[in-house]
Amino acid sequence: TYVVTESCIRCKYTDCVDVCPVDCFREGPNFLVIDPDECIDCAVCVPECPVNAIYAEDDVPGDQQQFIKINADLASSWTSITKSKGALPDADEWKDVKSKLAELVK
Ligand code: SF4
Ligand code: F3S
């Protein structure tokens, strides 16, 4: 599966969802996750993300490993998003902030 990591928090550009052939993105208030039961590992979403938040599970950086479980856990309670709706209003102010896990709204 592919995994959305910390860079997405409070940005949520949503460019990624338009290209997913199996509609496996799920949306929360300020973050998206990928449903690991649906992702077919096609990788087309990776270059769409302006903040490079999406990684193959095997390539998730060491300091982002907790996001594998976060994606799996939140995918079951969040709802599907299949069309881009633009970024959060202050996305550009948050895109370079490194530690944002405390900002994640579930
Ligand atoms: Fe969707 Fe492919 Fe990205 Fe998985 S890797 S979330 S199937 S676009
Ligand atoms: Fe998040 Fe990047 Fe998609 S910021 S919503 S993973 S385009």
From TrEMBL:
Keyword set, alphabetical order: 3Fe-4S, 4Fe-4S, Electron transport, Iron, Iron-sulfur, Metal-binding, Repeat, Transport
Cofactor section: [4Fe-4S] cluster; [3Fe-4S] cluster
Domain of life, source organism: Bacteria
Record's signal peptide: none
Pfam short name (any one): Fer4
GO molecular function: 3 iron, 4 sulfur cluster binding; 4 iron, 4 sulfur cluster binding; electron transfer activity; metal ion binding
Domain 4Fe-4S ferredoxin-type stretches: 1-29, 30-59
Gene3D superfamilies: 3.30.70.20
PANTHER family: FERREDOXIN, OXIDOREDUCTASE
Function: Ferredoxins are iron-sulfur proteins that transfer electrons in a wide variety of metabolic reactions.
Name this polypeptide is given: Ferredoxin
